[in-house]
Structures are given as structure tokens and as C-alpha cells.
Amino acid sequence: MPERNVVTYNAMIGGYCMNGDMELASILFDQMCSGTPVTWALMIEGFAKVGDTVAARRLFDRAPAEMRTVVTWTVMVHGYTVNGEMEAARELFDRMPFWNFFVWSSMITGYFKKVDAEEARAIFDQMPVRNLVNWNALIAGYTQIGCCEEALEAFRQMQEHGFQPDEFTIAAVLSACSQLGSLDCGKKIHELINRKKIKTNHFVLNGLVDMYAKCGDLERARKIFDGMRRKNSVCWNSMISGLASHGRSEEALNLFAQMEESEEKPNEITFLVILSACTHGGFVKEGLEVFEKMDKYGLVAGVEHYGCLVDLLSRAGRLAEAYDVIKKMPMKPNEVVWGALLGACKVHMDMEIADKVVHEIGTLNSGAGSTNDAQYVVLSNIYAASEKWKEAERIRRRMVKNGIQKMPGCSSIMVGNTDYQFQAGAIV
């Protein structure tokens, strides 16, 4: 170019930053005679995007006073929040001369990523004025960390303050309903979508399929699913998972076969879901074939996939094969994988494999540092069922010695708008 101005420099710097090439971006930045607030913001954001918050902060501190606009402050605070550095973000946030809506939402989202709902809500409550994006950040944050009752309460408060939900709000509250298993609440949200004529993009449609599937209304979930013109992997996975979790494993396998023929190919989560379906349906042959297909799609099996395979074989009584799978895993098996096999040993009363599992886990023998009550209880029950009372008593004594207590199971159901929890035979 015969002449280059600040716009062309910013365009080049922005392109390099977008692609994570901060070295070349820095060279152009240093060549500029004088930048603009946009230039400084691009560079700070670029360094933060590649995780180099130290370089981003160094550049922010160098910025002349006239270059430190609210945008410059915001991108630095946001850089800290996306990298999980909330203490640094809060220090800078508190020093800002004034705040825009985006930086408030960034702080709220950052605290939720650190699973600090109390601080996230405190930031939200400090806001003098709020917009819909801020409410969405609060509702989505609660949903993402499993505080679904709080998410629905925030949704109610949002409407009381005169804000109308958009598709992002709806996607978040549908997820909350799914996690709670509240079909009544989910239906009300669906009615709201139709009444307010809210845009039904793929986020909303996926949310509806997931909600109805998880809440047990598979017919309605399938109707929405079949009516979608384009289905992404999230939608396919939700429908397959819904069928699998409600005992319709054969239908889940058929839908998986349809997905293979579609434009949207299975991903790691799809295989996890369909392996679980095979496990609960007792389809050992099909499950083994599904596991082998992962390589066909260029996917690498994780410890969760191996865990499903072990559980599949274990439930079928093929404990020796399950043990061999664990021993040949390319990664270190965790206690969940060993626990699945150990639980099957109790069902099939296989003391030989149980003893091997206990030896492999190690912590069950030594007791040092182990806090997994379930494995102790299962092992004790295996010994007791085999009338090996001394061994059973030894395990129980080890639990007492290490301060491990059996955690009671807990179930919950939604009746109307009330959540009833049942623990150890008592309503809590």
C-alpha cells in the first residue's frame, strides 16, 4: 500500500489478534506513529485471548490516559474473567471510572465460572441499572452450576421488573427445567414461547427437545425433533439420551443409526450416550460394535467411554473381560471405573475379580487418604454375602478408623411447584 493510515493498521492488527499471532501484531503496533483507543483495546484483548494476561496488563498499564476509554478498561477486565483470574478482575473493576453493561455481565459470568454464586449475585445486586443481557448472565450462570431453583426465581424476578425474555433467556430456563425434571415448569415455558412469539432458533428447539426428553415426555420431544429442519449434534444427543435414560435403548440405537446417515456425524458425547443406552439395554454385542466405531470417526475414547464399556461387560457378567479392558486402557483408570467393576462383583459374587480390583485400587487396602464410602460398603457387602464375616468386619473397622461414613442416598420429585426430597426414608 502506498499509504497506510490508522484504520488499515487496526485492520491488520485485528486480523493477527483474531488468529492469535501476537508477535506480528506487536510488530505492527510498534510501527504505528500513534494509535487509537481501538488499537490499544485490540492488542490488550489479543494478549488476553491467548491467555497471556501478564502481557495484556503490561500493555494496559502503558496506555496513555487518553487511550484508556471504558472499552480499554472493559477488555482488560474481561480478559481476566475469561482466564479465571477473578481477584485481578475485581481489583481492576473496582478502579474503573464508570462501568458499561458488558463489564457487569463479564464479572457475573466470571464468578459463576468459579462456582461463586454468592459473589456473582452480589455484583448483580450492585448494578444501578440492568438490561436483558445482565439478567441472562445471571440466569444462565445459575443454570450452568446447577442452581436451577435460583435460576427460575431470577427468571420470575426479571419478568416482574418488566423485561421480556429472548431466545437466550428461554434456552437457559429450559435447561433449568431439564435439570430439575420439572415437566410442568417446562410446559409453561413452552406456552410462553408460543404466546410471546419468541424466536425458535436452534438453541430454543434444542432446549425443548432436551427438556421434554429428560422429563419423560418422549413423544412430544420426538415431535419437536422430527419437525426441525436442521439438527445439530446437541439435538441428536439430547434425543438419543432421552430415549436411553427412559429404557428405550433399541429406539436410541435406531436413532443413532439415522444420525450416522445424516449430515451431522456423531461426536464424543454421542458415543457416551449410546454406550450408556447399550449398557442399560443389555446390548453387549451392539455396545462393543459402537465402541469400535469411534476410530472410524477419528474420535479418541476417553476414560468415560472406557467406563461405559466396563459397565456394559460387567452387567453382563463378563467380569474377566471387563478387567482386561481396564488393564489395557491407554490412560490411568479412575475410581469410578474400578467401582463399576467392583459393584458387578457383588452382583455376580465373583470374589476372585473383587480381590484383584481391591489390590488395583490400593487405597482400599491401605485406607490411606481414601474417602470413597461406596467402594468400602460394596466390598464389605461382598465379603458378608460370601459369609466372610471377619473380612467384612475388617473393612467396616477401616471405615471407622479413617472417618469414612456411608452417605445416604437421596431422591427428589417435583409435585406442582414443590420439590420433595427423600433421604434415608425421610422427607427432607
UniProtKB/TrEMBL annotation:
Keyword Cytoplasm applies: no
Q: Which GO terms describe its molecular function?
A: RNA binding
**At which residues are the PPR repeats?**
5-35, 69-103, 131-165, 201-231, 232-266, 267-301, 372-406
Q: Which UniProt keywords apply?
A: Repeat
Output the PANTHER family linked to this UniProt entry: PENTATRICOPEPTIDE REPEAT-CONTAINING PROTEIN
Report the SUPFAM superfamilies cross-referenced here. Answer: TPR-like (SSF48452)
Please give the PROSITE patterns that the UniProt record associates with this protein: PPR
Entry-linked NCBIfam families: PPR
Protein's UniProt name: Pentatricopeptide repeat-containing protein
The GO annotation for biological process reads: RNA modification
Q: Give yes or no: UniProt keyword Zinc-finger.
A: no
Supply the InterPro entries for this chain.
E_motif, PPR_At4g14850-like_plant, PPR_rpt, TPR-like_helical_dom_sf
Q: Which species does the entry assign this protein to?
A: Cocos nucifera (Coconut palm)
